[in-house]
C-alpha cells in the first residue's frame, strides 16, 4: 500500500476518478465564476480581488484538478508539492487540495503524510495575508483551515489502517490455504509411504513362500505326480492368499476409520504361531518362543512386533535358506517388549536366492522408531545374524 501499482484501471477506478475530477474541477469553475461577479454570493468575503489573481487561481486550480487523474501513480508526490505551493493563495482549488491530502494519507506512509500536512498547514498560515477575508479575524481563518485539513488527514489514515488490516487478513488466509495444501501434500506422501510399507510387509512374506515352493519343484524334476499336485496346491493357495492380502491392504488403506481404531489386516502377537507354521510348511526351520501373554500386549506394540518377526523370517528365507531361525519374544509391562531373531551366518556370506528391494530392514527400523522403540541388526561374534528390537510396553 505504499503506492498504487501502475496498470489498467478497473471500472471502479474509472468511476472514482471521474467523480473526484468532477468535484475538484467543478468546484474550481463555480468558485471562479462566483469571484468574477460584482458581488460574490458563495465567497462574499473574497470580494474585491483583482482579476489577474482570480484567473491565476483558476489556472493553477485547473492544473491541480487535471493532476487528480494520476493521483494514485508516481506523480502523486509532484502533485502534492504543487498543491502545497498554490495553497498559499488559491481559493478555487479547495476541494482539490483536500482530495490530494486524503489520497496521500491513504496511499503513503505516515512520514510522507506528515511532511505534506506540515507544508500545507504552513501555507494555510500564509493564506490570510495574501487573500484576506472580509469580516474574519486572521486566527479564525487559520483555525477553520487547520480543522478541515486535520479531519481529512485523520480520515485518510483510518481508511489506510482499515485497508492494511483487510490485506493482512487476506494474506493470513492465503498463507493458511497454502499451509493446508502443504499439509495435504505431506499427508499424501505419508500415505504413499505407508502403502509401500504395508505392501512390502504383507506381500514379501507370501511371495517368498511361493518362490520356495516353486524352487522345490524346479530342483526335483522327477517328483511323483502326487508331490507335484501337492506343491501346485500349496503354490495356488499361497498365490490366492497373497492376492487376498493385497486386496485387504488396499481396502484398508482406502477405508476411513476413526483414529486409533485397528485396521485389518492387523495381526498381533497371537498370530505368530500361524506365521511360523507357514514358514515351516515352506521348509524353513523355525524355533518360536513367545514368553509373554499375547492378549496382555497393547495392540499397537503387538502389530509392530508381528511385522518385525514377519520381515525377519522373510530375510532368513532370502539370505540364509536351510538354516534354523530362532525367534524369541519376551518382556513385561513397564520394561518393554524385546524381539530377538537369530539365524546362523550362511557359509560363503549372505546370499539372496530370492530377489528383494533391500528396504525391508529400513522399513522395520522406521516402524520401530515411530512406535517409540529401537531396532538393530547385524553379524554377531557368534557368527550369527541377529535382528533385535525393543518396543515400549506401558504399564
Describe the SSE topology.
Elements: H1 11-35, H2 51-67, H3 76-86, H4 94-107, H5 110-130, H6 138-219, H7 225-254, H8 272-281, E1 285-290, H9 299-319, E2 324-332, E3 336-344, H10 360-370, E4 374-379, E5 384-391
Parallel strand pairs: 1-2
Antiparallel strand pairs: 2-3, 3-5, 4-5
Domain Signal transduction histidine kinase subgroup 3 dimerisation and phosphoacceptor: 191-256
EC number: 2.7.13.3
InterPro entries: HATPase_C_sf, Sensor_HK_TwoCompSys, Sig_transdc_His_kin_sub3_dim/P
**What distance lies between the first and last C-alpha atoms, to the nearest angstrom?**
60 Å
CATH H-level superfamily title of the domain at 269-395? Histidine kinase-like ATPase, C-terminal domain
CATH architecture of the domain at 269-395: 2-Layer Sandwich
Shape: rod-shaped
Q: Give the count of helical stretches.
A: 10
CATH topology of the domain at 269-395: Heat Shock Protein 90
Mean of pLDDT: 78
Number of strands: 5
Transmembrane segments: 14-32, 52-70, 77-104, 110-130, 142-159
Domain Signal transduction histidine kinase subgroup 3 dimerisation and phosphoacceptor: 191-256
Keywords: ATP-binding, Kinase, Membrane, Nucleotide-binding, Phosphoprotein, Transferase, Transmembrane, Transmembrane helix, Two-component regulatory system
Protein name: histidine kinase
Amino acid at each position: 500500500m505504499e503506492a498504487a501499482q501502475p496498470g489498467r484501471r478497473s471500472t471502479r477506478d474509472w468511476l472514482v476518478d471521474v467523480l473526484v475530477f468532477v468535484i475538484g474541477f467543478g468546484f474550481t469553475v463555480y468558485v471562479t465564476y462566483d469571484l468574477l461577479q460584482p458581488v460574490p454570493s458563495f465567497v462574499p468575503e473574497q470580494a474585491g480581488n483583482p482579476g489577474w489573481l482570480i484567473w491565476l487561481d483558476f489556472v493553477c486550480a485547473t492544473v491541480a484538478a487535471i493532476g487528480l487523474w494520476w493521483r494514485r501513480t508516481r506523480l502523486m508526490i509532484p502533485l502534492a508539492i504543487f498543491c502545497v505551493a498554490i495553497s498559499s493563495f488559491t481559493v478555487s482549488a479547495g476541494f482539490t487540495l483536500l482530495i490530494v491530502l486524503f489520497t496521500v494519507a491513504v496511499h503513503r506512509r505516515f512520514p510522507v503524510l506528515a511532511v505534506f500536512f506540515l507544508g500545507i498547514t504552513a501555507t494555510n498560515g500564509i493564506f490570510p495575508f495574501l487573500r484576506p477575508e472580509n469580516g474574519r479575524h486572521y486566527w479564525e481563518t487559520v483555525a477553520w483551515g487547520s480543522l478541515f485539513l486535520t479531519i481529512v488527514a485523520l480520515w485518510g489514515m483510518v481508511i489506510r489502517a482499515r485497508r492494511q488490516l483487510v490485506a493482512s487478513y487476506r494474506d493470513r488466509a492465503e498463507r493458511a490455504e497454502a499451509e493446508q495444501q502443504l499439509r495435504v501434500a505431506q499427508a499424501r506422501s505419508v500415505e504413499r509411504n505407508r502403502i509401500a510399507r504395508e505392501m512390502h510387509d504383507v506381500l514379501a512374506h507370501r511371495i517368498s513362500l511361493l518362490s520356495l515352493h516353486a524352487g522345490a519343484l524346479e530342483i526335483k524334476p522327477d517328483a511323483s505326480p502326487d508331490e507335484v499336485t501337492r506343491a501346485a496346491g500349496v503354490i495356488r493357495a499361497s498365490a490366492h492368499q497373497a492376492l487376498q492380502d493385497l486386496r485387504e491392504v488396499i481396502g484398508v488403506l482406502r477405508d476411513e476409520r476413526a483414529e486409533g481404531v485397528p485396521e485389518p489386516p492387523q495381526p498381533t502377537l497371537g498370530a505368530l504361531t500361524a506365521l511360523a507354521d507357514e514358514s515351516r510348511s515352506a521348509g524353513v526351520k523355525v524355533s518360536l518362543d513367545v514368553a509373554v501373554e499375547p492378549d496382555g500386549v497393547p495392540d499397537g506394540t503387538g502389530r509392530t512386533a508381528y511385522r518385525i518377526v514377519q520381515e525377519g523370517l522373510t530375510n532368513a528365507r532370502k539370505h540364509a535358506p536351510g538354516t534354523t531361525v530362532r525367534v524369541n519374544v519376551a518382556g513385561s509391562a513397564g520394561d518393554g517388549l524385546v524381539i530377538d531373531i537369530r539365524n546362523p551366518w550362511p557359509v560363503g556370506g549372505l546370499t539372496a536366492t530370492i530377489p528383494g528391494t533391500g528396504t525391508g530392514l529400513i522399513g522395520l527400523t522406521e516402524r520401530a522408531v515411530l512406535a517409540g522403540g529401537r531396532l538393530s541388526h547385524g553379524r554377531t561374534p557368534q557368527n550369527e545374524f541377529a535382528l533385535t528390537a525393543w518396543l515400549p510396553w506401558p504399564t
